[in-house]
Fold each of these.
Amino acid sequence: MPITVYLIVCPLVFVGGLVDAIAGGGGLITLPAYMIAGLPVHNAIATNKLANTMGTSLATARYGMAGYIPWKQVPFCVACAYAGSTLGSWLALQVSDRSFRILMLIVLPLTAAYVLRHKSLSSSRTPFSFGKTTVISIAISLAIGTYDGFYGPGTGTFLILLLTAAARMELTKANGLTKAVNLASNAAALVVFLINGKALIPLGLCAGCFNLAGNYVGSGLFRKNGARFVRPVMILVLVIFFIKVLYELVTS
């Protein structure tokens, strides 16, 4: 693996880990990083899952120790996220590299637009009962877990947005549950990709260390206003990524 790949991937993965711990959506930076460095789609997704699993593990532990994770809802949501991600990653392996790139030209701008346009994650509406919140959270975990296994970018922010808006959870609990669910979906997808030999382990472990560092810094800076710098970084990376994918499709 050329050293230039590490020089491109690792700094962006650190930024992605930082962003993900604060506001979710770090995958909008980390997955493009691997593809900008020249990795094929399936290898990029698989290696990204390895690094992200390491970083999300640390962030989940820190949120747990801070008391943000609603443990009574975690087992049900985690189980559904794991099942959905396993299905999604299996489906991803059935799609060819070129078809995946074409799909990205459609999905990525839509995902980025949805993630970048939100301004507040707070919910001022009356909370649901524990049972109703749990049922809605389970459905969200299954749906977003499937998306995370298949593609992934924006998963953390989608979870936070839906848990606060649809399940009416308070922001701290939504963020804590998001970490646990995202860890489960990352781990499930990683298992599928490892079995199929798609993850580039040395690169993934090295990037994972940078992701750990980013998540450590980000989870310590968790504030509602802590994501101010996120949008400019995401926009820059997404523009570079979009242009690269489009160029490769046109010239191939």
Amino acid sequence: MRTLSISVDRFPLARAFVISRGAKTEAVVVVAEIRQGEARGRGECTPYARYGESVESVVAQIESARAAIEAGADRAALQTLLPAGAARNALDCALWDLDAKRLGVPASAMAGLHRLGPATTCYTISVGDPETMAAHAAEAAARPLLKVKLAGAGDAARIAAVRAAAPEATLVVDANEAWDETNLAANLEACAQAGVALVEQPLPAGRDAALARLRRPIPVCADESVHDRAGLPALRDRYDAINVKLDKAGGLTEALALAADGERLGFSIFVGCMVASSLAMAPAMLIAARARFVDLDGPLLLARDRPEGLRYEGSIVYPPEPALWG
């Protein structure tokens, strides 16, 4: 006999998290918990307005699958019950966790990974004026990998300011769809001049054809332009990497398949996250094992994490203990 419960958790942030689309001061997440006998599986997701999601809509989607889940639907069946998105992610990760607990087998082994080790994660610098971003970058300059949020106008100055404040760090920049064809080449060149390693989603999804016509001086990664495997072939001439996020893909099951197909098509893998607790990061560690870049810093941006959260030592994040997930 299975039971499904749903909760909404709130985590205040250490400081405002600002991207091109706006700012937030707390992370609001939805948790699905599935119990079967003595075993309990949990999955956490973050509703994202960019994809038309809200806490209410995600909870309603999870509720719509309650009867099937409680009747014993497995991960394969779940893929047909709900579309890709946050709701399916919460349930899919809860089922992975439940199966690991019931079988006494780590989720990483269930996914065919012989060993799950630590990873070096990005640490995010929110968008702001160049002086503020430089100050925040200076605070984090000892971290090996920084992810710099951008916003369009004035980005060249932002990039230069962050590079000056953190001269040794590897930089990844994320425009969150804020550039356009008129400033794309100049902004990419500014990134190249600053030694940026990767540019994430410079143009809006669906309006990114210019990337295929432009000589790209540094690798470009698709985020909002890629959700699941169906969209990969159309991106081959536009992007060099794909950002695999469990909330977009609709769970670990599709994310693993997306990463595998992406590699076969020649994309580098970037594993990303929403601002959320360690419960959301834990399953993504299975994608981190094959990723060129890892961005699982959500808990580092919170004022407090879950008590049983992931262990972070600086920018090194360690695999989850079973008390958390998997």
Amino acid sequence: MKLDRFKFITAVILLTVGIFLGTQIDKVFGGDNLIENLRKFNDVLTYTQKYYVDETDSQKLVESAINGMLNELDPHSVYIPAKQMKTVEEEFKGNFEGIGIEFQIVNDTLTVVSPITGGPSEALGIMAGDRIVKIDKESCIGISNDDVRKKLRGPAGTKVTVLIYRAGVKDGIEYEITRDKIPLFSVDASTMLDTKTGYISVSRFAEKTTDELVEALESLDKRGMKQLVLDLRNNPGGYLNQAFQIADLFIEGNKKIVYTRGRRPEFDEDYFASVASKYEKVPLIILINRGSASASEIVSGAVQDWDRGLIIGETSFGKGLVQRQFNLSDGSAVRLTISEYFTPTGRLIQRKYTDKKKYYEDLADREEDEGENLDHKTEKDSSRPVFKTEKGRTVYGGGGITPDYLVKNDKLTNYTVALLRNNVFYLYALQYIDVNGAKMNKQYGNDLLKFKSDFKFSGSDEKDFIKFSASKGASFDQKDFDQEKEYIFLRLKSQIARNYWKNEGWYSVMIQGDKQVAKALTLFDKAREIANLK
């Protein structure tokens, strides 16, 4: 009886709320039979709760209905359950509270990939490769990723004790770590490629990305930067205001950077350059690929439309829709597309999405011819709308940002894919450092440049790597290996460099085999010419 009464009260509440929402929404939007449709939904939910053969979970039913509704819209309008909201907010706010490590579970053991710069673990001297075997005196062998977060994250100021095993140290080392706010950086790497070329990689557009980028630019400026490669490859986007502010660093005067238009006029916004910056005259090349989306396309689109620099790489994702997050009463949220954004020339770069399955498959199937594309002749047979840059070059809307120079990184062989899938590079690097760490510390110390120029794997190292890889499920393929041997051992060297010099080590080594970066280094004269820079 109590259960039936509860169901009846729940149904009444849902019906009342539904009618109220319907009347309020109807006042705003009108003429869309909202009240009638909300009643229909209430009826179906009530009948299901009352008559369905098995017990049902109303929350799951409602969330499934929400997801089904959003599936009728564009691919970027999404529902975020309450349990995922904290992670989503941390990603874009740029910090969380915990001990500050990147980690992996390796052979059931919690292993430190890297202490996060500026976090408490780094301050205590916890190192890449350390194995955490106990948390608060309890064994954590076999721990899951979720349990790691539950045990190691927590409010700033609280303490946790960990027992660590470290290669070359006989006994375990116990650390008492005071949790703190941990910064999540969106500038992954900032380094000099040569005596005059700066390189900055930005992984997303979060709350503090502009501040991080300015700091990186100032640092490179002091190191002699005269020209810049800005790497936005695989950057999925983020906050529109951060994209506008970053573009403003490089675009002078009060030129338009981006504008949005929606069905409702309150969502129409125009963004103009407004802040004078010394980087407006720095020769600029931006790298993009099919993983560059949204805010990445705003920046590269503005630079291309104003002929401010060159875009190199592969055609970007093609996401020209703007979402706004609406928080719901239970802690969940819905992100709805409220407008479209346009580059300065008026390009909407959003790809068609009538077939959502094909929307993502198109990226993998996309084929492009490499070469110069300053007048964008590769798109000349396209049905996409035509626009003109400030200098009169042809560019196209409706399909992402197509580079001025198309350069593809080589596709990986099946053998290399197997190495990546089985996490072989990381696992072997860990073993290699266990065996050779002391010798490497003596030989290279903290000298990344010496490591880059001098470190090489021996023939026996290569054989050992192949044998190790096979033991981890990556069956050896001689043809694939011969084709990608240089890449394989460059990536392995980068993985070892990351253990010692974090992201700067990883990027500065990997860049040595990067075709798109190599091409960029040959094109700064053209970048100066197109931007009218001396």
Amino acid sequence: MEPIITVENMTAQYGEHVVLDRLNFEINPGEIFVILGGSGCGKSTLLKHMIGLYKPASGDIRIGDVSMVNAEGAERDALIRRFGVMYQSGALFGSMTLLENICLPLEEFTSLEKEARELTACMKLSLVGLSEFAHHMPSEISGGMKKRAAIARAMALDPEILFLDEPSAGLDPVTADELDDLIIQLSRSLNITFVIVTHELPSIYKVADRVIMLDARTQKIVAEGDPEKLKENHEDQWVRNFFNRQGAGA
């Protein structure tokens, strides 16, 4: 199986400060892949590089066989269409209904007529269990529903990959667990590849097919694999402590 995302010798830095040093990993199609680590380890920085907001100081990031770093013009536009992003706060436009929020990328990037855009948006809301709330404003729904609506908007253009930044942040345990169920359902039913930044261990254990753990001390990946196995068997005590929540600093 060819990887859908390849990160090769990628270094990220701000000025002279190196945040991530020569990272190498691959993500397979249909995988739920989690990026984790302690505070300040570069999780969000890595995500921003992977979606093309920042260019790495060196190395490459490829989606399929196309370089995110080097793609320009129409090639870059086509590459960006292959993924959707859910930001930590949800980032819904407060002056628009949920339906209008999801129609926005369809209006911007497709030639669909209004009726077709709204039908597509309703379908996406149905996928995340929000069919009855299409005409609600973001201020009228709960935090968990905002996260679901943000996922629906990220799926508007039928991407192969969804990047989620701290999807469980700010949610109560029951709501977070329901969101985890939704991620698993979407992954399995639609064969979407998920790349998730989080430090929430219950979510990590429930949804992750595979994880990488970043370490601010070395600016490198210090662990990769099944989180349950890393919890018990990793050679580094600091890694085991993190997965057992013993002073590793999330």
